[in-house]
């Protein structure tokens, strides 16, 4: 997972608000194969390797159903280490009868579905970077049908849970508009634009990945932020290679008028122009 370590800025953890913690835990354990590393009455932390938290879920006291046509989560995306892992989980999904969508993006092969609260999830495997095509500074991606016959020829074993080397590959967000968002993520956070999808979606990354973050206006131009009690995205974290790199980004964010404050020891919090909360970690 060369694009999710060392000198890159990448998504580390996604935190979701859910309406029923017990139901969500069953889903994330039995359907995807997460391990619980910490749990309380209303919160749980989930991992692929038993140590690194990729997803945390919580059930606030006054939580309401996930609101539509708002900013927030489009999907979070779990990156599997091997194509054979993707084939294995396809067989698992067929066995349990989970409805899924799918796509071949040229740079990756992906499956799509939702959790019980309607939070979008992608599980994917990358093609090797040597097979990606770059033109004029942008990587070529598309939405082609997934060749299941070819994919399933690589299946190796019964699905036994997320492989230990799985990571949070990227996050894709609904935003209210793209111009201020681009300034925040590019001039502020230091990402680079790697692809556009018309005028409604933008893909950004560091280290020439195909994307660490996707941003779209498909919920509508000017879409409002969801209410504080709505199920859905609470926050996600970005991991920086060093304190110096994070300090530089804090100065850049403040330079464009974005506020940053320490939410807890070692955790800095900022919000993008659409209200999406971001933890800045080292």
UniProtKB/TrEMBL annotation:
Q: Which InterPro entries match?
A: Glyas_Bleomycin-R_OHBP_Dase, Glyas_Fos-R_dOase_dom, VOC_core
Its Gene Ontology molecular function terms? catechol 2,3-dioxygenase activity
Q: Which Pfam families match?
A: Glyoxalase
Fetch the Gene3D superfamilies from UniProt.
Answer: 2,3-Dihydroxybiphenyl 1,2-Dioxygenase, domain 1
Which part of the chain is the VOC domain? 10-126, 167-282
Q: Does Repeat count among this protein's keywords?
A: no
Q: Which domain of life is it from?
A: Bacteria
**EC numbers for this chain:** 1.13.11.2
The UniProt keyword set, sorted, is: Oxidoreductase
List the protein's name: Catechol 2,3-dioxygenase
- The protein's organism comes out as Peribacillus deserti
User: What is the organism lineage in this UniProt record?
Assistant: Bacteria, Bacillati, Bacillota, Bacilli, Bacillales
